[in-house]
Design goal:
- Helix content is 28%, strand content 22%.
- It starts with 33 loop residues before the first strand and ends in an 11-residue tail after the last helix.
- The protein contains twelve helices and 20 strands.
- The radius of gyration is 25 Å and the shape is globular.
- By secondary structure, it is an alpha/beta fold.
- Helix 2 runs parallel beside helix 10, helix 5 crosses helix 6 and helix 8 packs parallel to helix 10.
- Strands 3, 13, 14, 15, 16, 17, 18, 19 and 20 form a nine-stranded mixed sheet that branches.
């Protein structure tokens, strides 16, 4: 008798569907086959895959929720939309329709705001790298410039002097609010004395009028009390400025940094359970302001981005292929990767099947389409037995994914907006090769 002695390594697959753990059972009870009641299959059929999808209803609801929460506590609150979070014209138009100012950090973003009809006096010009030409335009059009370093102060003074104007400016500061690593790259540090030195420099110059303080303590802040500590330090700083320089500042800009429902890689609880509510952030920021006499003379500005737009964004992708890895894990390749979702490097993005499924749910490695080993969307996420052609919905991806996407190996896809009435508008078409090479110039000697 002939025996086949070839050894075959066993495949052991952990059965997770229905099992309980400290967090709960996997949330795969039914397919995520609709976005705002629009079928995923219909969206892909009309606009192709991959596809970014935004919900106008969610955007407006989130923004108005934030505005109402803060103005109930502190009426003189204004929101400014952080352009870098998402600067598609349709998204910007929604924000401005709802009354948001424009917070920009480059000449490109400034130009975007102006082309959309935002007047200069409704623009906050922030960032560490403002060109001279853009500063001249901002001063001419009445934008509020937030000073980041001494060289910028000197340049703005020089421009203002040549224009014979005395513009109002704001000073960006950084401080220890108990959030580490501390953001001390931007603006002037409070504890080291840099901030008071910068104020003295502006006062002695006699050309600029300091009217406000800007302090953005960090990003994805899960501790609302960090804002309370920051505001208390700023109030004490303002009292020092009033005592030493007779300055009465009228604007306090606390930037952004509010968390969304996303889940950080090192986070135990799901993001929707760990992220503070707008009310918690509002209580922390406004309580110290309300304790100050005549506090309503100070305008509060917030540049909240992620917490408003993140949950309004989705990406639909298609499974291109499947493979069992040598480790025993199942893997899938989808047509969207880090080129579109750079946030997958620090978030546990939800990846949900968009069609009914059967069989065992098992931990699956999800790879993107790039010919790069780092293009991994999730290194282990419970998924059913997805096959080539199946669709998945990835969320939340409304913040930074569109603005930070790039054309490495793959072109960028279309973006659609689902209106409150269920209508679907194309707000950015899919790119073509002509878009990519339109700025290139081929020397004559290379032409055949």
């Amino acid at each position: 008798m002939k025996h086949n002695n070839k050894y075959e390594r066993p495949k052991i697959v952990k059965q997770v569907d229905g099992l309980m753990n400290k967090v709960g059972r996997p949330a795969l009870n039914k397919p995520f086959d609709k976005i705002d009641n629009v079928p995923v299959d219909e969206l892909i059929s009309n606009f192709g895959s991959p596809l970014f999808v935004f919900s106008e209803r969610t955007i407006r609801n989130r923004l108005n929720d934030a505005k109402n929460t803060f103005t109930i506590r502190y009426p003189d609150t204004v929101f400014a939309w952080s352009y870098k979070t998402n600067y598609l014209d349709a998204i910007l138009s929604i924000m401005h329709q709802e009354g948001s100012l424009a917070e920009v950090v480059s000449e490109m973003e400034y130009e975007k705001a102006r082309r959309l009809g935002v007047p200069g006096n409704k623009i906050i010009y922030n960032g560490p790298c403002k060109t001279r030409a853009s500063l001249e335009r901002a001063l001419k059009e009445g934008a509020l410039i937030q000073m980041d370093h001494l060289d910028e102060i000197a340049e703005v003074e020089e421009i203002a002097k040549s224009m014979d104007v005395k513009p109002s400016v704001s000073l960006r500061i950084n401080l220890d609010a108990g959030i580490y690593p501390q953001w001390n790259r931007f603006g002037f540090n409070l504890e080291s004395g840099m901030a008071i030195h910068a104020v003295k420099r502006i006062v002695l110059g006699g050309i600029l009028k300091l009217t406000g303080i800007h302090c953005h303590i960090g990003t994805f802040i899960l501790d609302p009390l960090a804002y309370k500590r920051a505001v208390e330090k700023i109030i004490a700083f303002e009292k020092e400025l009033e005592s030493k320089f007779n300055l009465k500042l009228t604007v306090l800009n606390m930037g952004g940094g509010f968390a969304s429902s996303n889940t950080l890689m090192n986070q135990y609880l799901p993001g929707d359970q760990a992220a503070p509510s707008f009310a918690q952030y509002a209580d922390a920021i406004t309580a110290p302001l309300l304790s100050v006499q005549n506090s309503y003379s100070r305008k509060l500005i917030l540049e909240t981005g992620r917490a408003i737009i993140d949950d309004a964004g989705y990406l639909i992708a298609t499974v291109i292929g499947t493979k069992r890895l040598v480790s025993g894990y199942k893997s899938i390749v989808i047509d969207a990767g880090l080129n579109l979702l750079i946030t997958a490097l620090w978030y546990k993005l939800q990846i949900l099947p968009a069609q009914t499924y059967k069989g065992v749910v098992e931990d699956t490695v999800v790879y993107g389409p790039l010919c790069m080993n780092i293009d991994c969307m999730r290194d282990a996420i419970p998924l059913p037995d997805l096959q080539k052609g199946d669709k998945v919905v990835i969320k939340p991806v409304g913040a930074y994914c569109v603005t930070q996407s790039w054309q490495f190996i793959k072109l960028r896809p279309a973006v659609v907006l689902i209106g409150a009435d269920g209508s679907v508008d194309l707000i950015r078409r899919a790119e073509t090769l002509d878009d990519i090479i339109s700025a290139e110039i081929l020397p004559e000697r290379f032409k055949s």
